[in-house]
Amino acid sequence: QVHLVESGGGLVQAGGSLRLSCTASGRTFIINDMAWFRQAPGTEREFVARIVWTAGTPYYADSVRGRFTISRDYAKNTVYLQMNSLKPEDTAVYYCAARSMPTMPYSYWGQGTQVTVSS
C-alpha cells in the first residue's frame, strides 16, 4: 500500500500562486508515476499533471501548461505542484495520485486539498 497526504491548498486571488505538496509513505518503491487531478463542484475529476517518479519527466494538461509546474523530491518521497497565474477556473479540490505501472489506473489517492481562486 501507498499512503498519500496532500497539503498547501488555500484561498488566493486571481493571478496569485500556490504550491501543493504530496508526500508518499509505505511501499513507495512500487511507484511508477504520481499525478495531480482536480475536481470542481458538479464536474468530473480531471487530470492536471503527472511526473514519472524515477526519471522526473513531467506531463501537463493543456489547461495548465505554462502556468503549473510539477516536480518531485525523490529523497523525500514528495511531489509538488507549483501553480502560478491562477485563474478562478482553477478552483477545485486537488488530489494527489500514484500508480505502480503506466498502463494501470491510479489506485492510490490522497484526501484532497481545496484550492479557491477569487476574482
Give the arrangement of secondary structure elements.
Elements: E1 2-7, E2 10-13, E3 18-26, E4 33-39, E5 46-52, E6 58-60, E7 68-73, E8 78-83, E9 92-99, E10 108-109, E11 113-118
Number of strands: 11
> Which stretches of 5+ consecutive residues score pLDDT under 50?
none
- Looking at how many chains there are and whether they match, the oligomeric state comes to single chain
State the shape: globular
The portion of residues forming beta strands comes to over 45%
From the helix content, strand content and strand pairing, which structural class follows? mainly beta
Q: Outline the biggest β-sheet.
A: 7 strands, mixed
Mean pLDDT: 96
Cα-atom radius of gyration: 13 Å
What is the percent of helical residues?
A: under 10%
One letter per element, helices H and strands E, the order comes to EEEEEEEEEEE
Distance between the amino and carboxyl termini: 40 Å
Count of helical regions: 0
